[in-house]
């Protein structure tokens, strides 16, 4: 798949880049995508939820009233889950939600997500760029030049660039990542995928096997 390369002004540079068929042109595997996204979201969970059980509640241990003769049910502790302020039955406990997936499956999921973007013509390639200083105004100008101002956009760089990252950090609909940190969830969550020529080469080296 051949794509024209644009500059940060949104103009064609005359150059073209070939998107590898083995990454952007495969038959997408929906189940691999499902598992990878599920893992990504599970790994984001802190798992610090906690409710106190009856043995953890602070309260008196005296018997509330006599065992027999009241006409009511027996009660031995104010900390019983049956009373207001008592412990919770089977309440949430801290746990780790993360789980592992095979490396090849995660690669398949990433290729499938990139292929979906290519099929929907949502992939754009920019020449490698940099900002002299970190300014949000510079990044907004780039998005306006590409007509992506109102689109949820994922920008993929070949390597980390502090000025570009800081310029985009305040924009709610924009995320900047490196090719090494690209994941299936971010690709699918974005309406438009912006690659630099350097990031295309990085992706090809990492995924084209």
UniProtKB/TrEMBL annotation:
Pfam families: Ribosomal_L4
Record-given protein name: Large ribosomal subunit protein uL4
Any one cellular-component term (Gene Ontology): ribosome
Family named by the database record: Belongs to the universal ribosomal protein uL4 family.
Species lineage: Bacteria, Pseudomonadati, Bacteroidota, Sphingobacteriia, Sphingobacteriales
Recorded superkingdom: Bacteria
Subunit-structure text: Part of the 50S ribosomal subunit.
Function per UniProt: Forms part of the polypeptide exit tunnel. One of the primary rRNA binding proteins, this protein initially binds near the 5'-end of the 23S rRNA. It is important during the early stages of 50S assembly. It makes multiple contacts with different domains of the 23S rRNA in the assembled 50S subunit and ribosome.
Transmembrane region(s): none
Disordered, as annotated region: 46-77
Keywords: Ribonucleoprotein, Ribosomal protein, RNA-binding, rRNA-binding
């Amino acid at each position: 798949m051949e794509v024209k390369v644009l500059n940060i002004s949104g103009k064609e540079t005359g150059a073209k880049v070939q998107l590898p068929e083995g990454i952007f042109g495969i038959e997408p595997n929906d189940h691999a995508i499902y598992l990878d996204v599920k893992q990504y979201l599970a790994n984001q969970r802190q798992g610090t939820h906690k409710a106190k059980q009856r043995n953890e509640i602070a309260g008196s241990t005296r018997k509330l009233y006599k065992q027999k003769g009241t006409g009511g049910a027996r009660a031995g502790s104010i900390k019983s889950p049956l009373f207001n302020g008592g412990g919770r039955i089977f309440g949430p406990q801290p746990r780790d939600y993360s789980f592992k997936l095979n490396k090849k499956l995660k690669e398949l999921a990433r290729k499938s997500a990139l292929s979906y973007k290519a099929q929907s013509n949502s992939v754009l390639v920019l020449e490698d760029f940099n900002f002299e200083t970190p300014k949000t105004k510079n990044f907004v100008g780039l998005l306006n030049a590409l007509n992506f101002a109102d689109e949820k956009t994922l920008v993929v760089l070949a390597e980390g660039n502090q000025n570009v990252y800081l310029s985009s950090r305040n924009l709610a609909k924009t995320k900047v990542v490196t090719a090494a940190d690209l994941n299936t969830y971010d690709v699918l969550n974005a309406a438009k995928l912006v690659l630099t020529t350097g990031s295309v080469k990085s992706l090809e080296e990492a995924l084209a096997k």
